[in-house]
UniProtKB/TrEMBL annotation:
Family: Belongs to the transferase hexapeptide repeat family.
Protein name in UniProt: Acyltransferase
Gene source species: Rugamonas aquatica
Molecular function GO labels: acyltransferase activity
Record-annotated membrane-spanning stretches: 40-60, 81-98
């Protein structure tokens, strides 16, 4: 695993400082309102909420300026800067929203959309989408409890980004793992606890399971 370089940490800290400054300034404006006996609690909750809202905005602005690019990430490159600052945003800010099961699933959907995931209508995740900007999921799909989807590969010092694309009406079972570069067709099923290794292609209507995942049942043939 590569070390995150001081300049990359410094950039993240500068963005974090901007986020906290904006949140505190906005909270101070709210302090002028008559908030009653629970003024302190209300202002603290408002500050936390505003900090995350500004974090979403700053994060998306950062990705607009330095988008994540698929492929092997060269050392000391703009791609590495984008990838590592993205990792710092996840570790320092967004991990608590994605991994702690604090938020209800419908609100979790809004978080993933705010972080750049492409989610079709009526698609929800009770698991963790670890690289939302590189995750594209169709409509009417469910990602089960404690499942994990990630679009990065870390092998020693090698860092690579590969988008995950999941179709419509797909079921990802609880605690399943979907690795980088996986493609899953419409109406497919990945069973609970399965580990779908990187670059696997699952055809439409197929059922996969096991560690590593293998095809259990082929798609039904049209009558």
């Amino acid at each position: 695993m590569r070390a995150i370089k001081p300049a990359q940490i410094a950039l993240f800290l500068a963005l974090l400082a901007a986020i906290l400054t904006l949140a505190l300034l906005t909270t101070s404006l709210l302090g002028e309102l008559p908030l009653g006996d629970f003024r302190g609690v209300t202002l603290v909750c408002a500050a936390v909420l505003l900090a995350y809202l500004y974090a979403f905005l700053v994060y998306r602005a950062f990705l607009y300026a330095l988008p994540l690019q698929e492929g092997v990430v060269p050392e000391n490159s703009r791609q590495e800067l984008a990838a590592n600052v993205n990792i710092l945003f996840y570790l320092m800010l967004f991990n608590s929203l994605i991994r702690t099961h604090f938020l209800p699933v419908p609100l979790q959907r809004l978080v993933y959309l705010a972080l750049g995931a492409e989610l079709g209508a009526n698609t929800y995740s009770a698991g963790a989408i670890l690289d939302p900007p590189l995750t594209r999921i169709g409509s009417n799909t469910i990602v089960g409890h404690d499942a994990a989807i990630f679009a990065h590969v870390i092998e020693g010092s090698k860092l690579e980004l590969k988008a995950v694309v999941i179709g419509n009406t797909v079921t990802i079972g609880a605690a399943a793992v979907i690795m980088a570069g996986v493609r899953i067709g419409d109406h497919a099923i990945v069973s609970a606890g399965a580990v779908v290794t990187k670059d696997t292609i699952i055809g439409a209507g197929e059922i996969w399971g096991g560690i590593p995942a293998r095809r259990i049942k082929a798609a039904a043939q049209p009558q």
